[in-house]
Design brief:
Layout lengths: L1 H11 L4 H4 L2 E3 L11 E3 L19 E5 L4 E5 L3 H9 L3 H4 L15 H4 L7 H12 L11 E8 L8 H9 L3 H9 L9 H8 L6 E6 L17 H12 L3 E6 L8 H5 L3 E4 L6 H10 L3 E2 L18 E5 L4 E7 L4 E2 H5 L8 H17 L3 E5 L11 H11 L2
Parallel strand pairs: 1-2, 2-4, 5-6, 5-13, 6-7, 7-8, 8-9, 9-11, 12-13
Antiparallel strand pairs: 3-4, 10-11
Helix pairs in contact: 7-8, 14-15
Length: 387
């Protein structure tokens, strides 16, 4: 467990390993003089999981003729572990109909703390106490990501029949003649928008499930439609990632080729699912967001190595915090915001990430920008904030 504690301290100090040696994590007062800052353990990490104390951090300054010492009586190491490992999801049983842990079930949602990156605030406090410079404002990385749940609305049988039944037969015929006419085929538009953000990394998460249930529709990875999409993506310099099945199926051939980057369909993730990703060799996961609320599910704006709270193993799976998903903002079952409200919430969130030199990841679906909502207007406005 010492590797986990050392990792958390170093993470809080933005990777400063030499400064991490100045921080002790012990209740043994005979050892305190070995450090500049001591964090007193609450005894829970590695033993049993309890709700963290999120009240104001208690800091005591001790001074004598020989040395000054700062003692933090709030266990910010345990609190950080609790959030970045998602240990919370082991002690709260509530889930929605898709077996997802929502913001409204979380301690963070109930305490209205979703927009507060508590772990990063601990980091700033610790750096101040060690007289270290605070992180330079900016974005350490920008990921513009797109989940390709469907290539086209009307190029598969059920979609075409449904469109005709809804009186959209002209759109169906236009799509059948040329896929570029299909309202879901927005890849060229997304690529042109994403190019406005210099140094952004673009990832298209491709699903190759069997089209059953919530994985429907399946698109043919050997067909001309997907070949066209793949060419557009690759020619733009973007990356293909693996959009994991709703049902947690193992990756197929194409997914294995692109499994470094992963995001679960419907943002379904769990402790067991993340361990499966570790076992499959996935290195970077982009699922980590509450589906029903924007904010900081990990309580940090930065990518972090996942700690399995069941096994207390520090894994090589890096969790990238997902900041905003399009439908979270507009869906009537989620935040149900109008365009101005959505812009304001995103702006607030961007400012938090920027302040902490964090990583900003956006998720916009190709299927959503031509379906009559405000997302084709909002997305360019948000990208303008990043330029």
């Amino acid at each position: 467990m010492s590797d986990i504690i050392q990792y958390i301290i170093t993470f809080l100090l933005y990777g400063n390993e030499s400064a991490a040696k100045l921080v002790g994590y012990t209740a043994d007062e005979s050892l305190w003089n070995n450090f500049h800052v001591v964090i007193v353990p609450n005894g829970h990490i590695g033993c049993h999981i309890v709700e963290p104390d999120l009240s104001d951090v208690i800091v005591e300054k001790k001074e004598d003729n020989a040395k000054s010492l700062v003692v933090i009586h709030t266990d910010i190491i345990y609190n950080t572990f609790f959030f970045i490992s998602r240990a919370e999801e082991l002690i709260i049983d509530q889930r929605d109909e898709h077996n997802r842990f929502l913001a409204k079930f979380s301690i963070l949602g109930k305490q209205n703390r979703l927009m507060i990156p508590t772990v990063d605030e601990y980091a700033r406090l610790l750096m101040k106490l060690l007289n270290l410079p605070l992180p330079t404002p900016g974005f350490s990385n920008i990921f513009l990501t797109h989940d390709v749940d469907s290539i086209a609305n009307y190029r598969h049988l059920r979609g075409a029949i449904g469109g005709c039944l809804r009186g959209q037969w002209r759109s169906v015929l236009a799509s059948q003649r040329d896929i570029h006419n299909d309202p879901a085929f927005t890849f060229s538009w997304l690529i042109s928008q994403d190019k406005k953000v210099e140094n952004a990394k673009c990832i298209y998460f491709i699903k190759d499930a069997f089209g059953k249930g919530y994985d429907y529709p399946q698109y043919n990875l050997d067909g001309k439609d997907f070949t066209l999409v793949k060419q557009l993506i690759e020619n733009s310099g973007a990356t293909l990632g693996w959009h994991g099945s709703y049902y947690g199926d193992k990756p197929t051939k194409l997914e294995k080729e692109n499994k470094r980057f992963h995001r679960s369909h419907y943002l379904r993730c769990s402790i067991d699912r993340m361990q499966e990703l570790v076992d499959m060799g996935v290195t970077d996961d982009f699922t980590m967001m509450f589906p029903d609320q924007v904010g900081f599910r990990l309580q940090t704006t930065r990518a972090v190595r996942w700690i399995n709270p069941k096994t207390m193993a520090l894994t090589n799976l890096v969790l990238h915090p997902l900041a905003v998903m399009d439908c979270t903002l507009s869906n009537a079952n989620y935040m149900h915001l109008d365009e101005d409200e959505a812009y304001f919430e995103c702006q607030r969130l961007f400012e938090k990430v920027y302040k902490n030199n964090g990583e900003l990841t956006l998720l916009w679906h190709n299927t959503i920008v031509r379906n009559g909502n405000y997302h084709h207007l909002l997305y360019p406005k948000l990208l303008n904030l990043l330029t």
